[in-house]
Design a protein that fits this description.
- This protein is of the alpha/beta class.
- It has 2 domains: 200 residues, NAD(P)-binding Rossmann-like Domain (Rossmann fold); 95 residues, UDP-galactose 4-epimerase, domain 1.
- Helices cover 42% and strands 15% of the residues.
- The strands form 4 sheets. Strands 3-2-1-4-5-6-11 form a 7-stranded parallel beta sheet, with helices on both faces. Strands 7-10 form a two-stranded parallel sheet. The chain has a two-stranded parallel sheet with strand order 8-13.
- The protein is globular and about 60 Å long.
- It binds ligand G4F.
- Ligand G4F binds next to helix 6.
């Protein structure tokens, strides 16, 4: 029987990789999208004729119930959220409503329609915030440092709670930062790769960043969607940290990106206080030992390869845009 998957946040970076991955596994893929005057499916262009896009909203429980009744998925991957950490200080209530309560709306809708649906919740390393131990694993206590991190802690625990309360197959993947050429340009790795390409090609002069000392455990989004799927194929639902186990600073990211195009980053990068955060997560490094052991998962792409892959993709895209402008 063909498996059906419903993916929220399908228009985002991870949604695009996951949809592609699930199609490759033979799934019928449904993506939930919000109704919007100008719908943008840039990342899904190559998949548009192979996936089904259906309207639904994390803020509207009836729309979720109706969607699940219509699609009757075997698996739901809840990737949708307000995902940009700085915005969560500007819109803390909206962030909580979709990123935290949106999870409960989904779990309630599953209970109402079909409790056998398997549910994946996109939890985040931002939950560790002011880290309580190093490296961080499934048993490390949370100490979130942003309204986004706080909302994700709620989403994580409500997933655990519904699993324990109602015996639902609900898993939480605690994913450390995951990047790719499809990453949004506000996030630091893509902001850097895009700037390195544009500066190299002479269409940008400077790159303004915030905290260069912040350290993250950056992995490749394409590797991480495989882990999500594996979680839902197990006999028992559980929570897993997904990470590379390596931590690098924003400064190292800049060095690799600019070095790859033979530029000295010191000539182009400026620190601008508008990009500093009210509270920072200084250093994250994950321990994915449980995922390695139980899911047989491990990352294939590591830091330098990831950043250079992103710079190469941006070089190609910017060159193409410049050539198109000339025509
Ligand atoms: O790229 P970032 O904005 O990612 P952040 O805040 O770690 O969160 C991302 O990863 C989480 C874990 O998977 C997700 F849950 C979340 O949704 C999101 O995808 O910032 C990374 C670091 C921060 O410490 C930030 O202060 O880079 C530092 N940084 C320095 N300059 C900057 C900048 N971040 C951004 N976005 N822009 C800058 O100019």
């Amino acid at each position: 029987m063909t498996q059906r998957a419903l993916v929220t946040g399908v228009t985002g970076q991870v949604g695009a990789y996951l949809a592609d991955f699930l199609l490759g596994k033979g799934y019928e893929v449904y993506g939930m999208i919000r109704r919007s005057a100008n719908e943008e499916f840039e990342r899904l262009e190559h998949l548009r004729d192979r996936i089904h896009l259906e309207h639904g909203d994390l803020l509207d429980e009836m729309s979720i119930v109706n969607l699940i009744e219509k699609v009757r998925p075997h698996e739901i991957y809840n990737l949708a959220a307000q995902t940009f950490v700085p915005t969560s200080w500007l819109q803390p209530v909206l962030t909580g409503d979709c990123t935290a309560l949106g999870v409960t709306r989904f779990l309630e809708a599953i209970r109402k329609v079909d409790e056998s649906i398997r549910f994946y919740q996109a939890s985040s390393s931002e939950m560790f915030g002011a880290v309580q131990e190093e490296p961080q694993s499934e048993t490390t206590p949370f100490y979130p440092r942003s309204p986004y991190g706080v909302a994700k802690v709620y989403g994580h625990w409500i997933t655990v709670n519904y699993r324990e309360s109602y015996d639902m197959f609900a898993c939480s993947g605690i994913l450390f930062n995951h990047e790719s050429p499809l990453r949004g340009k506000d996030f630091v790795t893509r902001k850097i790769s895009d700037a390195a390409a544009r500066i190299k090609l002479g269409v940008q002069k400077k790159l303004k960043l915030g905290n260069l000392d912040a350290q993250r455990d950056w992995g490749y989004a394409g590797d991480y969607v495989r882990a999500m799927w594996l979680m839902l194929q197990q006999d028992e639902p559980d929570d897993y940290v997904i990470a590379t186990g390596e931590s690098h600073s924003v400064r190292e990211c800049v060095e690799v990106a600019f070095g790859h195009v033979d530029l000295d980053w010191n000539d182009y990068v400026e620190v601008d206080s508008q990009f500093l955060r009210p509270a920072e997560v200084h250093r994250l490094r994950g321990d994915a030992g449980k995922a390695r052991e139980k899911l047989g998962w491990q990352p294939e792409v590591h830091f330098t390869e990831l950043i250079t892959m992103m710079v190469d993709a941006d070089l190609e895209r910017v060159r193409f845009e410049l050539e198109s402008d000339d025509e």
